[in-house]
Amino acid sequence: MRVVIIYNPNSTGNGKANAERLANALRDESIEVRLRQTTHPGHATEIADSYARRGDEMVLISSSGDGGYHELINGVLCHKNTKLVVGLLPSGNANDHYSSLNSGDMAHAIISRKFRTIDTLKVSGTIKGAEWLRYAHSYAGIGVTAVAAKKLIEDRPNAWSEKWTVLHSLLSFRYAKVIEDGDTRRYSSLILSNIPTMSKVIKLSQQSSVYDGKFEVNAIHFGSKLRLIGYLMTAALIGLHHDASQSRYKCRTTKPLAIQLDGEVYTLDADSTLVVESDRRSLRCVL
């Protein structure tokens, strides 16, 4: 078995040191390991794509946060019937996917071949007039969380200014307006999730599963700022009540719309048809 560990030297955690520790633990068990450093946005996707094209059976580990892992799985999932197994070595800020699903030491999981095949979210629309397709390992969201995440990615604030950025987004954001089945809907937040936690503190539906071919719909309809703050406090303390479990969601944007997929944010075109589907048992993972 061969293992490639892709690390982000600029991750909020220590991606390089974590990658080196895992590599040493695996080499002690006579496992062939290669370290690859990312140098620019999207590089993890390019690296994963190059390995997926070869058709070899191997393990790709992302030593990064949810955003770096998002890049990696998109390099893998653009190829069907790949023999690659992927995993996340938590080296970011939130590490939602790892915290929700992983059960123990990564080196032990790889050595003992604790591999499972999980669902992902397949998300499509248009960006800059071109068809766009991405996969998410944990969630897709529009509304205030996407706007706050976009600002955090752009500004890369420290721990104190991060809180101000989130608060400012909360107070200044109005709503995301979309068309669903001909009806206009306004959301303060709409999150379609495979996992029960987002951004470390937001508790989503505890019924979330990566094995049932469905995602949970967590919606906060537009209302007063006080109502939104109340919903978010509830989400942090006891969790949101999910509206439904679905395998497909479809809407049309009315203006350019930020959408968050895991730790990354994209901007869909106005009048774009957004489709989110559960891609059942599509990703083979170390868990």
Question: Could you list some keywords that capture this structure?
Answer:
single chain, 287 residues, alpha+beta, Tumour Suppressor Smad4, eleven-stranded antiparallel sheet, four-stranded parallel sheet, 8 helices, globular
For the record, the CATH class of the largest domain is Mainly Beta
Find the structural class using helix and strand composition: alpha+beta
Helix coverage percent of residues? 25-40%
The total tally of domains equals: 2
Mean pLDDT: 88
Strand content of the residues, in percent?
Answer: 35-45%
The radius of gyration is 19 Å
Order of helices and strands: EHEHEHEHHEEEHHEEEEEHEEEEE
| Spatial gap, N to C terminus | 17 Å
Please describe the biggest sheet, giving its number of strands, its sense, and whether it closes into a barrel.
11 strands, antiparallel
* Shape category: globular
- Number of beta-strand segments: 17
The CATH topology of the largest domain is given as: Tumour Suppressor Smad4
Ranges with pLDDT <50 over ≥5 residues? none
Q: Which architecture name of the largest domain does CATH use?
A: Sandwich
Number of helices: 8
Q: Please, could you describe this protein's structure?
A:
The longest helix is centred in the middle third of the chain and has 14 residues, at 159-172. It contains eight helices and 17 strands. The mean pLDDT is 88. The protein is globular. Strands 5, 6, 7, 8, 9, 12, 13, 14, 15, 16 and 17 form an eleven-stranded antiparallel beta sheet that branches. It has a four-stranded parallel beta sheet with strand order 2-1-3-4, sandwiched between helices. The protein has a two-stranded antiparallel sheet with strand order 10-11. Helix content is 31%, strand content 38%. It has helices spanning 15-27, 43-54, 66-77, 96-101, 106-111, 144-155, 159-172, 225-237, and strands at residues 2-7, 32-37, 59-64, 85-90, 115-127, 130-136, 139-143, 176-180, 183-193, 197-198, 202-203, 215-221, 244-246, 248-253, 257-261, 264-268, 273-286. It has two domains: 2-113, Rossmann fold, CATH 3.40.50.10330; 122-280, Tumour Suppressor Smad4 (Sandwich). With 287 residues, it is of the alpha+beta class. Helix 2 (43-54) packs parallel to helix 3.
